[in-house]
Amino acid sequence: LTSALAIAGALTAIATGTLPQAPPAAPAAAVDSAVDSASGGEPRSVLIRDTRGVVVGRLVLLREGRASARVSIVVKGLTPGFHGFHIHTSGVCDPQAVDPATGQVSPFFTAGGHFDPNGGTHAGHAGDLPPLLTAQDGSGTASVVTDRFRLRELTDADGSAVIIHALPDNLANIPARYAPNGPDEATLKTGDAGGRVACGVIR
Questions:
Q1: Does domain 2-202 have CATH number 1.20.1560.10?
Q2: Alpha-carbon distance 66 to 40, whole Å?
């Protein structure tokens, strides 16, 4: 219920062009409320901005059961189609960031790679999420429950970030007829999702 209310509020705010406010917590039984409060169960609401600093969406994170999290997102103003959508390691969203390996501006490079404390490969990173589908008008919504991380893991000293990419995420699923040796290193890191077009800091 809390997640549904948060998404509905975000949709209304985005549709009307108003700056969304943090969603209210839904009523709950006293015991459940106390447990959630003690374990970071209140919703976390994150504004997502593009490279110009314009708000293009909101992410809502909510504890789901004992060991899972519900990740809900609403966006506007993106290009139609699928977009890679992940949690990244650092809560720094600098649209003018420079990739030291190339010396070139690489928006939101400061957010680091996919959140992955266990050292896996894509699409097995803890921060991997299903691709985000946007309609012809550039709007989209999605909600997914994951047990790959707990909310408190995303709010350590340097936080984390949600990143929306320019291109679809192939989830490193490259059939052998196209790549007999399997996906290459770049695909195993990012799913060929392209540049980072929007970012939100999770604290």
A1: no
A2: 11
